[in-house]
Each structure stands twice: as C-alpha cells, then as structure tokens.
C-alpha cells in the first residue's frame, strides 16, 4: 500500500539520477521499530539537496545536524524528514566544499530521553559555466549593492520559514511551457566585470504574459516586487522547501493563499533585472538555492 510518506520517498528515489537522493525504502513493520537514520549512500553534487529520514517508534522530535547547522525534521507518515540543501556559492548562503560530511540526528524520545544517530554523505564538486551578460544603463543600476542586499534580506527571511509538514507530493510540475534557456549556478559577469554573480535558478524562455504555474502544492509565502528579481512569488511547500517565480508581468496570488500543484499563479514578464521575457524559477531547501531540475520529471 502506498502510504503518502513512502510514496513520496519512492518518488524522490526516482530522482536519484539527478541532483536529488532520498533514503532507502524500508517496509513498515508492526513490531516496535528501533530508531534508524537513512541518508543517501551516493554522492550529492554542490547545488543539490537530499533527505535525511529517521524512522522508528517512540520519537517525539528530531534535529538533524549537517555541516555545523541544525535542520528541524518534520513528522511525516510515521517517520521524520529533513530536507537539506547543499550550498553551491558564497552569497546568500555559503558553499559546501566537496568531501565527506557527518550527518547526525539528535532525537528526543517520548518520555523525555534522548538518542543520537549518525550517518554520513559525500558532496561532489559541480562545475558551473561562466556567462558574460551586458546590460543597458537603466538595468545596470539594479546591480547597486544596496538594492541587492535589500533583496537578499527579504529572501533570507522568506526562505528561513519552516512549515512543519510536507505539502508537496512527488515530482514537481514544470512551471512554464518554454524551453530551458539558462542553467542553475552559472557564474555571471555583468558588463565585463568579474564573474561574481551566481544564477540562483533555472530560466525558461517564454513570451511576455505566458502562464506561470505552481510547481507543487503549497502556500504563498511572498508575492510582490523585488529590485532584481522583479515581480516575484515564493511558495512554501513545507519542511523548509520553497519555489520562486521571478520577473513576472502579473501576480495572481496573495500571501497566505493555498495553491494546488499546476495551478496558475501569474504571468511571465521581464520585470527587475532581465534582458527579455522569461521565467526565472528557483527551488530552495532550508535557505539554500538548489538545482530545480532535479525536482522535475525528466522531459
Ligand atoms: Zn534566471
């Protein structure tokens, strides 16, 4: 029987060929289950993400530690789930260097005891292309560090949210119909300067006004103008997972609104720092921008 939790994990397993890996599936037994931590047994690239899953009986709460940072796990289908993003740059978040990392789950047990479970993951290096982008004077003004900082402060707050349940289910829907026109993590040189920028999402080439759809079920966490990303929507999918939709010409949702997977939420445009109409689409896990293509069904 497909329990929602197992269904989600099985679906995530299917993404293992991409950027994402889930824990191994294990049958749920009726007998008392000793607590167990599952983490990926194959490498995760920089800019990817993974699930740490704790199963077992008698658990009241779980905090997962990775690279010196705590991640609050959420109860899901009889287990506990933490979504962990692997940083790919300095800036909004640090870059996790390639290598082996400990993953430690600190459990609070029903009745008040504690227990610690340990595992490990390997982070692999990822290559990111460098792109030269030339902007006119008006658009270049949006590169003002004060504007960029103002935007980062907003994003930090939005993406730090943690709704303590999983709202998404399985693979994400493609948020726009156009072709992929830029990849995640490309290092960007503006107007001949050093490649200090980093592409925080993937781009879909679409016409002005083309429909933009929610990649998964969730709640609107932010909807409004940003200096660089233009008119933007961020959806909270629970457990620290978010998607962002930027440079829109129209926003059709309001903060707090619930949306279904595939539901229309706005229209594409070129607001903010854009050289033409396109959808800039982001996925963030616990505040880390990650490669959203790992969450889409292969084309
Ligand atoms: Zn973009």
Give the SSE map.
Layout: H1 4-13, E1 20-21, E2 36-38, E3 44-45, E4 49-55, E5 59-66, E6 69-72, E7 74-76, E8 79-85, E9 99-109, E10 114-124, E11 130-133, H2 137-140, H3 145-159, E12 180-182, E13 187-190, E14 197-198, E15 202-204, E16 211-213, E17 218-226, E18 230-236, E19 241-251, E20 258-259, E21 264-268, E22 279-285, E23 288-290
Parallel strand pairs: 1-4, 3-10, 11-13
Antiparallel strand pairs: 2-4, 4-8, 5-6, 5-9, 7-8, 9-10, 12-15, 13-14, 15-22, 16-21, 17-18, 17-20, 18-19, 19-21, 19-22, 22-23
The structure holds zinc ion.
Structure description:
The chain is mainly β. It has two domains: 4-124, Immunoglobulins (Immunoglobulin-like), CATH 2.60.40; 130-295, Glucose Permease (Domain IIA) (Distorted Sandwich), CATH 2.70.70.10. Helix content is 10%, strand content 40%. The protein has three helices and 23 strands. The strands form four sheets. Strands 12, 15, 16, 17, 18, 19, 20, 21, 22 and 23 form a ten-stranded antiparallel beta sheet that branches. Strands 1, 2, 4, 7 and 8 form a five-stranded mixed beta sheet that branches. Strands 3-10-9-5-6 form a five-stranded mixed beta sheet, with no helix packed on it. A hairpin with a 6-residue loop joins strand 13 (187-190) and strand 14. The two termini are 28 Å apart. The structure holds zinc ion (ZN). The site of zinc ion (ZN) has 5 residues, from loops.
